Amino acid sequence: MFRLRQLGIRCQTQILGRSYTSIRPLKVLGIETSCDDTSAAIVTSDRQILAEVVKGQQEMHEPMGGIVPTLASRGHSRNLPAVICETLDRAGLTVADLDAIAVTRGPGLPPCLPVGLNAAKTLAAVSKKPLIGVHHMEAHALTARLTTPHPSNLPSPMFPFMTLLISGGHTLLLTANDLGDYTQLGTTLDNAVGEAIDKTARLLNLEWIKGRRGGPGAALEQAALQGNPDRYMDRLPMPMLQRNKSVCGFSFSGLKTAVARLIEVEKVVDLSVSQDVSDMAAAFQLVCIRHIEQKLRLALDLEVVQNKKPLTALVVSGGVASNKLFRSR
């Protein structure tokens, strides 16, 4: 958003120099290849999403039990040209109609990021458009200001607000004070929550859910719907309950290891019994959510009570944020 605003100033000067009386919204093509989804969208500086296309790769990665970076890179190379063309078609635009090209520059999987970067650089160079490198985490933090309506047509939520990113690669909690001004409150000490969920789904031999919102995380969530979390709750450790209790950080490695032990060593969970699998999925999911809630309370106390920050909202983003139980709580 900050970079769009900068571009808007330059565009305003140029247009006013040609005696235009109003400024048209800027149109930006965004390209994303940081993990396994090949994505593109066209957004405007007045926060309109003109088109969005996402191409998944589940058929490539499910047989491998997880995301394989080199395979994902090949998938991006195959899918990205069609994804960009379809995005332009849906918006009814050509590259010449765009004002800038934006692309995820990191963090992300090393073999995957260059596919999008190279495509964006080529498009920008050939069409003589500005190139905008977008920080993956900053984009997650600010996306709500693009997608959340506000009665006065201002970006919403207003600064400052707290944002929690929970995904396959990251568990990050920070306060967004202003554009480009962020206070990191906590991050994972080992595994990201999404990674722990995906690996637990593999331990439970769950078949991936198909579709854009599918994958191993969705499979574990679906299995948990049929489960009783109380059956295994006392066998799973609450992360950071004793050590580092007052630290505003996250840890999921020990929880994931405990599930593996119950399945592979103690044989408490019989994978051939669907109820055992559902009960373990439900217990694991609930412990993950309670751990995140505990650290959120700690962070809110730090920022609101101790630091007296007038936070306007809590923004939750990332793939794990689609979990319906977490959203309901």
Question: Could you please describe the fold and organization of this structure?
Answer:
- The chain has a five-stranded mixed β-sheet, sandwiched between helices. Strands 8-7-6-9 form a four-stranded mixed β-sheet, sandwiched between helices.
- It has two domains: 153 residues, Nucleotidyltransferase, domain 5 (2-Layer Sandwich), CATH 3.30.420.40; 156 residues, 2-Layer Sandwich (Nucleotidyltransferase, domain 5).
- Helix 3 packs parallel to helix 4, helix 6 runs parallel beside helix 9 and helix 6 packs antiparallel against helix 10.
- Strand 1 and strand 2 form a beta hairpin.
- It has 329 residues and is of the alpha/beta class.
- The longest helix has 33 residues.
- It is globular, with a radius of gyration of 22 Å.
- The chain contains eleven helices and nine strands.
Total separate domains? 2
Number of strands: 9
Shape verdict: globular
State the CATH superfamily name of the largest domain: ATPase, nucleotide binding domain
- Named at the architecture level, the CATH assignment of the largest domain is 2-Layer Sandwich
Strand content: 15-25%
Summarize the structure.
The chain is an alpha/beta fold and 329 residues long.
Throw out a few tags for this protein.
alpha/beta, Nucleotidyltransferase, domain 5, 2 domains, 9 strands, 17% strand, disordered N terminus, single chain, 4-stranded mixed sheet, globular, 11 helices
Secondary structure blueprint with pairings:
Blueprint: H1 2-17, E1 27-32, E2 38-44, E3 49-55, H2 58-61, H3 69-91, E4 100-106, H4 113-127, E5 131-135, H5 136-147, E6 161-166, E7 171-178, E8 181-187, H6 193-203, H7 216-225, H8 230-233, H9 253-265, H10 274-306, E9 314-317, H11 324-328
Parallel strand pairs: 1-4, 4-5, 6-9
Antiparallel strand pairs: 1-2, 2-3, 6-7, 7-8
Helix pairs in contact: 3-4, 6-7, 6-9, 6-10, 7-10
